[in-house]
Amino acid sequence: MLRVDHIWAKRGAAVALRNVSLSLSAGKTLAVVGESGAGKSTLIASILGLLRPSAGAITWDHQPVSSCRPALVMQEPRSAFNPVWPLMRAVREPVLGQEQSVTNERIARLCRGLELPMELLERRPREVSVGQVQRVGILRALIAAPPLILFDEPLSALDAVTQKHTARLIADMQQEEGFAALIVTHDLGYALAFADSIAVLKDGQIESISDPGSFVTNPGSSYCQALRDAAVALGSIEVAA
Amino acid sequence: MTLSAIGLSAMRSGRIILHPTSVEIEPGARIGLVGASGSGKSTLGHALIDALKAQGLQVAHVPQSPDEALDPLRSLAFHWHEAAQARGLADGAAHQRAIFSALKIDGGDLRKRPWGWSRGMQQRFVIAMALMGTPDLIVLDEPTSALDPVIAAATMNLLDRHLERTNTAMVLITHDLGLAARRVSHLMVMAAGRLVEEAETGKILNNPQTSEAKRLAAHRNWMEVPC
Amino acid sequence: MMLTVVGFLVRAMVVLTGTALLTFALLWNAPGDPAQAIAIARFNAVPTQDVIDQVRAEAGLNASFWAAFLNWIGPLLLFDFGNSSVTGRPVGPDLWVAATYSFPLAITALAIGLAISLPLAILATRRPGGFMDRFAVAIASLGTAIPAFWLGLLLILLFAVQLAWLPAMGARTPTHAVLPALTLGLGIAASLTRIIRSGILEAWEQPFLAAFRHRGVSDRAIGRDHIGPHAAVPVVTVFGLELAFLLEGVVVVEVIFGRPGLGSFLTSAILARDFPHVQAVVLLTALVFVVVNLIIDVVYRVLDPRIGEPDA
To answer: What number does CATH give the domain C108-303?
Structure first.
């Protein structure tokens, strides 16, 4: 279980996170929703250990998070890969020391789950579509079977149809693999459709934490209400007639 | 007057990326141009703008990213005066104050260059420039993708009101049928450089004919919520 | 701002001191006996050993390397370049006279280069790949391929020998400067044409230009207000490098046309092993480089303020 316990963090001189607490159980999905500048990337950097919070603690099963070797899926799929390497090389990187045949079998199984043809991995990032590169990014995150995967705006580079397809595949893989997913997104619709709980981050502070059902019926604060209205106004969610 | 452009087409490196397409737009109409990435919708948008401008019409254009609309070496004030001059307006000062406060960018320092503002503010500045004067048509290419949802929704609502008041026609280019459905009365569906389906919004949402329209309609939102 | 100025001064001092030390060390360790060479140059005859030893003592060539270096660089801080070891006269005034011939020549050449290359590049880029463009590229390639000494001789043959319109040698009247300035200017024009042309073509690749056209901004205004500044950034950068070739060219051209100036000052000093003269020219060159680079740095920041910003 991931516990983010009363952390404060700075970005340069500015305070980016104020007293943020979150928890995420194994196999569950937590969506962190917020605007640009709300502190989402600072939160991810803190959990990954790339940035040391000035106060508070982040643990996985009472150990430092690094002990569970969490994986990250990035927003810009292409920039997450070395442009001159075949994708396969990047996919194998997290499991370099391990038995080849075991790895091959796992890659084949994950490829089936993510609807990726194996031959695709022989190509370079430029030679496949953005949606496919993003699925390879998810494959690489899954390869070492981490108990925790962080998704940083995993869908925002994709078109509306591919977004929904990719979200479905992530959820299916989660069923199979049982990892905990922390998804940072600005799209409330995605969070409502796929998360077990939704944390709204605003100006570095947690505005609310709730499950999708109660968020829809009772968003709580005026900001959460505005988020819900915006999602409706932009067609991300639809109000049933 | 109905805006009309016939036989729009485009080629890139010997390949046809837009097959001959004709577009007719009633005054004040709201049209959504939807399709997957690479379907040719932005290409059609550009061809439409060029064709209408060749007829002497005023067309405003909001590109997908502010990088495609602003010169990083020139101040925002320079952009504003240049655009006002190009439209033959004195300086658009009255319009500027009203539209800036409506778009919540009246706090920005116009002496700065574009990169001195956040991307969201830059995008709203570009929209404010597009609303200057009285264009016959405004073409918006994924206008909200650089904006946070709350700001994006407010901006789209403001655009709606402004276009209604001035009876300006709009073409909204987007991959997101859900967004288009909220904003337009008429949809044009593109696939592989062709216009494959064209109908009222409700018709395409409820009874899509082509596989592309069906795909877009099926994935138009994340969920339906009770009201 | 204050920090930038201090930082610049410190860098300039490091460059100048380094240049001084390096040239001094190179000359100090050059093969042959400088005292003998100086004695030959001074008395115009084969000197006796006594004379050579006397010259050695006078020129401070007996001292250790560091003592001699400090002896030279100390007065330099007060802009005293020392005395010529051949004539015994102070270096400063002679250097100044040489510079008054060379700098106007260099600046005239630069002006000629710009006056040719700027319109040529603008005309060429009106229609990339068109006749004017290919003509300009061909001329520019030819111009960069022809060395200055050969072009100078050709011009002498044509204008001085065949047509007898212009004087070839010396520097008595302003018309004497025409052929040398033209020789240098044509070379500069060739390379500047290429740089400005590619700068303009690159500027036209900027992603925002279509939007400006849609907004109704005329091509003329786009060229003036947007292409111009974007093209200027790379052009200014390369301009600083051009300066190296310009100084080299001045020396070559002055020798070809028999003009007084830094070129003949430097060559005669090297032949006579007149160390203070050589060092003075090298230091002056370094100083010009430092100053020009400072100007370029400032122009650069005015053109594109993103450069040097902590976070753009």
So the answer is: 1.10.3720.10
